[in-house]
Each structure stands twice: as C-alpha cells, then as structure tokens.
Write a structure and sequence with these properties.
alpha/beta; Enolase-like, domain 1; TIM Barrel; 2 domains; eight-stranded parallel β-sheet; three-stranded antiparallel β-sheet; 37% helix
Length: 406
C-alpha cells in the first residue's frame, strides 16, 4: 500500500547499526490517584538498543500495560505480527520503512487506536537513536529548524472538589505560570461532562464564571486557551454557552464536543466566536484528514505519543499547512514526549505554541522525576533551539527501576 513516510535527512553515510533489543517499561507512580484525570501518573517507556551500543528512548500516551502488550504480543497472521519481532535485526535509520512495516504488519488489529499509540513510542525512540548515532538533534534530521525559538503555553491544573476551590486553584495556577514567564496558558474548565473534575456537576453558566475569573487573574495580555474536555453533546448546546465568550479573547476552544462528532465540529468552526481545536486522541494522518476536511477545525493538535510518532506528526503538520490550519500539539506526558514535541515545533512554522509544564507546575511525580529535558523557559516566554543529539533528554534510570511495575 503506497503512502508517504518520513526518514531522517542528513548528508554523508549513516553508521551501520542493527536493532538488537526492544525493552518495554510500564511505570506507575506509587501515589497515583485513580480519580485524578491525568495520564501522567503512569507511563510506557521503550528503549531500543543496537549492536553498536547506541540506544533510543520513546514514550506513548496511552494505557502502558496495553502498549506493552501491543509491542510484545506474538502473532500468527501476516497482518497481525509482533512489533518487537519486526524490529529486531532492522536498520534503525529506515524509520519510514519500519513505520510502514509495523502499520501493515499489525493492520488486522490496528490501523488506529492502541497499536498506533504504541508505535508512537517506537517511532520516537528511533528518532532519538538516529540523532544520537549521528550526533545531531532530531530537528536537524526532520529537515532543519526554521526558527530559533518556540513559545510554550502552560496547562493549568485544577484542584478541589467544590466550585470555589476549583475556581481559585485555577486562578492561583494561572498567576504562578505568569510569574514563571509564560505568555500563554490553557485553563481546563471541566466541572461537568465525561471529564467532570472530582465528580463535579456544575452548570454551564458556572463554567463562564471560572473563565471570567481566570482572565481577570492573568490580565488582558496573556494568550488564554480553554479546554472543556468533551463537555457538550452537540454544537447547539455548546453555542448556548460559548457564544458570549468572545469578550474573554479566547485563543481556541479545545474539544468542546465528542471527538468523533466531526459534523458538529464543523458547525462550531463556522459559528463559535473563537477557533476550535481538536486532535489529542487521534491516530494517524487519516483521522486528521477527516478532522480538518469534514470537521473544519482551525487548530489541529497531534500528539507525538498517540498519532503514530514524530514522523506521523510531521506529516499531519504538513497536511495542516496545505489547508491553512494552525498546529498546536497536544502533550501531557514527561520530558521525553515534551522534547519530541519541541523538535517537531522547531521545523513547523505554523505551530503557534507547544504544551509545556515545568516541574513547578506539575502535580504528577513521574513528570517531575523521570526525565530532564534540555528545554528552558526564558524570561521572554520562549524556549531556545535545543542542540543536544537526539531528543536531548536525560532519563533517571533509578526512577525507571523504582517505579517499574511490568
């Protein structure tokens, strides 16, 4: 089946390497809270090793036990093969060919969803490995950086189980983010619906109250995005509330209806007073094609740990550019995925912001302890171009050992 894939771009000859081992690590923070709606309390980390001692590390944002099974499960069908076995002995520089091999070799069971999420970790690790082998940062292998800095936004995390606690926690988080130098931030406002924080069931009007409070807390000059996490059943119900949100100068409204309701998205894209953003859950370019061409969303949000990896995310970014859409990648994991997201952004001029949480804003233990990314938030609210080989991330292997459960 012919379709585009992406492999590293570089001059000269690549060192001869063969993949010898694929290690899967399921990590779980000991203080995890099952009622806390955050996928950063656990992680699936993959390590790809070669015969020359060069390794690569990747991560996906999905159930880590399922991801491990997707990688290691044996197969007895030509289109239901074992991903790990398909990788052993392969040349890691053939990332595009390997992606196609995994995609076709698992097509009976995959094509979307969990297997693609698991493949994202493999793809990420391959880009990291190739960068380290060549002594080059991933953005160089993606074609070269087109700018010297990118702008992150802080994701504001709520707390509390009552309206006042929730509102005040978001305002305090927003003020802290501003004090750290963030010029943009995204506030979760989800006190109802499938993501209802702490089981809350507040009215839609109270969601407007929270937005007003956060905007007042940060002032008019901060770029403010809103994530309502699939709050409304359809466009009409959503518009009853958000039609008056224009006064708050919202940069985008994220996931206002269910992720598969592309025709309802199109109605919102046409009528809402702010751009509509989607894509955090989507797998492969094919779902993003539907999102942009039928759903008409103005902001596409590929996640390098779900969409199929860094290469597949780059294809989605190119598709968005051809359609005149903005990219703002989703990322809710550790410094491994954050670093992959940043390298993607540095080669994507129409990527307006990346999602970024420094340790000072993180509740989750794995976010704070697992990986140290090269990225640094400067006083002007930007992140400079990374220069370390690969993803430029350092893993604390003692943390891996301590939190590994499978």
């Amino acid at each position: 089946m012919p379709f585009e894939t992406i492999s590293p771009k570089f001059s000269g000859t690549a060192p001869r390497l063969k993949i010898t081992e694929v290690e899967c690590h399921v990590l779980l923070a000991p203080d995890y809270d099952a009622s806390f709606t955050s996928s950063a309390q656990d992680s699936f980390v993959i390590v790809i090793r070669t015969d020359r001692g060069v390794t690569g590390v990747g991560e996906c944002d999905a159930n880590p036990w399922m991801a491990k099974t997707c990688i290691e499960a044996p197969g007895t069908h030509t289109m239901g093969l074992c991903i790990k076995e398909m990788l052993i002995g392969a040349d890691p520089f053939q990332i595009g060919d390997l992606w196609k091999k995994m995609y076709l070799g698992t097509a009976m069971n995959g094509r979307r969803g969990m297997i693609i999420h698991a493949m994202s970790a493999v793809d990420m690790a391959l880009w990291d490995l190739c960068g380290k082998a060549l002594g080059k940062p991933v953005h160089e292998l993606l074609g070269g950086a087109t700018r010297q800095h990118i702008t992150p936004y802080a994701s504001l995390q709520p707390a509390g189980h009552r309206f006042e606690e929730y509102r005040d926690a978001l305002c305090a988080s927003a003020q802290k983010a501003k004090s750290l130098g963030f010029k943009a931030m995204k506030t979760e406002i989800t006190m109802n619906g499938p993501y209802g924080h702490g089981g809350m069931r507040e009215s839609y009007e109270r969601h407007t109250e929270v937005l007003a409070a956060v905007r007042k807390a940060v002032g008019p000059d901060v770029t403010l995005m809103v994530d309502v996490q699939y709050l409304w059943k359809d466009a009409a119900t959503c518009l009853q509330t958000v039609k008056d949100w224009g006064e708050f100068n919202v940069y985008f409204l994220e996931t206002p209806v269910w992720s598969d309701n592309v025709r309802e998205m199109a109605k919102l894209a046409e009528q809402a007073p702010m751009p509509i953003a989607f894509g955090e859950w989507l797998a492969t370019r094919f779902e993003f094609e539907e999102l942009m061409d039928i759903g008409k969303v103005q902001v596409a949000q590929p996640d390098v740990g779900r969409v199929g990896g860094i290469g597949e995310a780059k294809i989605v970014c190119d598709m968005a550019k051809a359609r005149g859409r903005t990219i703002v990648p989703h990322c809710w994991k550790t410094g491994i995925s954050i670093s992959g997201t940043a390298h993607l952004a540095f080669v994507t001029n129409h990527c307006a912001y990346i999602e970024y949480l420094p340790p000072q804003l993180c509740h989750e233990r794995l976010r704070r302890e697992l990986a140290q990314e090269e990225l640094v938030l400067r006083p002007d609210g930007t992140i400079p171009l990374p220069i370390k080989p690969g993803l430029g991330v350092e893993i604390d292997w003692d943390v891996v050992k301590r939190y590994k459960v499978a």
